[in-house]
Amino acid sequence: MTIETLSSKEVYRNRWMTVREDSIRRQDGTSGIYGVVHKPDFALVIPYENGAFHLVEQYRYPVKGRYLEFPQGTWEEQADAPPETVAAGELQEETGLVAGRMTYLGHILTAPGYSTQGMHVFLAEELTPGPQRLTPEEGDLVVSRVTVEEFEALVLEGRIKDASSISAYGLLRMKKRLP
């Protein structure tokens, strides 16, 4: 099924996203509107060593709560930076860790029903600790180490609700990258 775009107008923009409203015609000839959120792709890093992951916990304003997740982010000021560069940077920024080996696992669309954004998933191994470089938005970020078993229990308990982290973990499992 294809949907034809008849017109498009930007209705909102800030440094993190653009929202547009498209007038559309569906395959059956009916018309309607479609709201689209454009955000650049981001990198998500799964830091893994000795049977455990390094997770970050921070307050997420839109959902008014603190949640555990894998380190992730995008560089708005360097939108053309290669995903592996962003992944390495986000890992060090949020956790202080530097990966001796970074393996690309794949690209996942995060919410294709309303957004253009996707994520590049990386497995980080051979980790070396160092200083964090947190941004003002990450000032309350806390790093935790959890085993694979604890990670799965935290998902089931609802402590890990971040869809990006859960889908990246699923990709990691399907690629059989854990011992």
Which spans have pLDDT < 50 for at least 5 consecutive residues? none
Full CATH superfamily name of the largest domain: Nucleoside Triphosphate Pyrophosphohydrolase
C-alpha end-to-end distance: 41 Å
CATH class of the largest domain: Alpha Beta
What average pLDDT do the residues reach?
Answer: 94
Order of helices and strands: EEEEEEEHEEEHH
SS element count, helices:
3
Task: Tally the structural domains.
Answer: 2
Percent of residues in helices = 10-25%
Largest β sheet strand count, sense and barrel closure: 7 strands, mixed
Question: How many beta strands in the DSSP annotation?
Answer: 10
Global shape: elongated
Strand content: 35-45%
Structural class: alpha+beta
Radius of gyration: 18 Å
Per the CATH scheme, the topology name of the largest domain is Nucleoside Triphosphate Pyrophosphohydrolase
Quaternary structure: single chain
CATH architect. name of the largest domain: Alpha-Beta Complex
Keywords: Hydrolase
Pfam family, one: NUDIX
GO molecular function, one term: hydrolase activity
InterPro entries: NUDIX_hydrolase-like_dom_sf, NUDIX_hydrolase_dom
